[in-house]
Specification:
Mean pLDDT: 86
Subunit structure: Component of the Smc5-Smc6 complex.
Structural class: alpha+beta
Order of helices and strands: HEEHHEHHEEHEEEEHH
Catalytic activity: S-ubiquitinyl-[E2 ubiquitin-conjugating enzyme]-L-cysteine + [acceptor protein]-L-lysine = [E2 ubiquitin-conjugating enzyme]-L-cysteine + N(6)-ubiquitinyl-[acceptor protein]-L-lysine
Radius of gyration: 20 Å
Strand content: 5-15%
Main location: nucleus
Largest sheet: 3 strands, antiparallel
Low-confidence stretches: 223-234
Bound molecules: zinc ion
Keywords: Chromosome, DNA damage, DNA recombination, DNA repair, Metal-binding, Nucleus, Telomere, Transferase, Ubl conjugation, Ubl conjugation pathway, Zinc, Zinc-finger
Strand order of the largest sheet: 3-5-4
EC number: 2.3.2.27
Shape: globular
Number of strands: 9
Length: 234
């Protein structure tokens, strides 16, 4: 009984803290407006963890990276970005990216160097690497959403639920609409049977496990809960 009450109190405090944080950010943003910068809230595309980024609204993001990267490095990023945006999955293989090094603007770059530059993009949170494939980091999505929408208007994909920019997610095999993994998880949470929100056909993908702040707090007290639960499959 005691335990349950403490848990409930912790959860209420958690929600209040989030609301306070959001009020606080709104206040800051009303001041930042005149400087063309803003704190944007987003979420990671794979498990929906909250992410905040200070976003410059005045300059194009790739040119803003110019202070940290050389011309040929920036062009490598643009090429990778293009492959990611054009791909069906939201991932570009390192092989496909490295095959474009001969076309880069600026100083000539070897494939070995290009591999290191890609790692630099990963360290700086512009890209994420998973099993030799690259996708955009949520930091990059937050900072570059506007730029990506304007630069690749025909290739960009959006989420049917939150209407935000979508790089990786699930799609309906019948009508083709797409959803972020965290949006899929939220949308189907209480549905008895997952059906496409657009065409109502059966949703054939696995419903992903996503970030849950309450679960995370519990896991903090007992590490045993950290095991991924895949039992749903059997
Ligand atoms: Zn979404
Ligand atoms: Zn559909």
């Amino acid at each position: 009984m005691e335990e349950g009450r403490a848990e409930r109190r912790r959860r209420t405090e958690g929600t209040a803290a989030v609301e306070e944080l959001e009020d606080f950010i709104n206040n800051i943003n009303s001041v930042l407006e005149s400087l063309y910068i803003e704190i944007k809230k987003g979420a990671t595309e794979d498990d929906g963890r909250p992410v905040y980024a200070l976003v410059n609204l005045a300059t194009t993001p790739v040119s803003k990276m110019a202070s940290d990267f050389a011309e040929n490095e920036l062009d490598l990023f643009r090429k990778a970005l293009e492959l990611i945006i054009d791909s069906e999955t939201g991932f570009a293989s390192s092989t496909n990216i490295l095959n474009l090094v001969d076309q880069l603007k600026g100083k000539k770059m070897r494939k070995k160097e290009a591999e290191q530059v890609l790692q630099k993009f990963v360290q700086n949170k512009w890209l994420i690497e998973k099993e030799g494939e690259f996708t955009l980091h949520s930091r990059a999505i937050l900072e570059m959403e506007q730029y990506i929408r304007e630069t690749y208007p025909d290739a960009v994909k959006t989420c049917n639920i939150c209407h935000g920019l979508l790089i990786q997610g699930q799609s309906c095999e019948t009508c083709g609409i797409r959803m972020h993994l965290p949006c899929v998880a939220k949308y189907f949470r209480s549905a008895p049977e997952p059906r496409c929100p657009h065409c109502n056909d059966y949703w054939p993908h696995e419903i992903p496990e996503v970030f849950n702040p309450d679960k995370e707090r519990e896991a903090g007290t007992s590490k045993a809960n950290k095991k991924p639960s895949r039992s749903r499959q059997h």
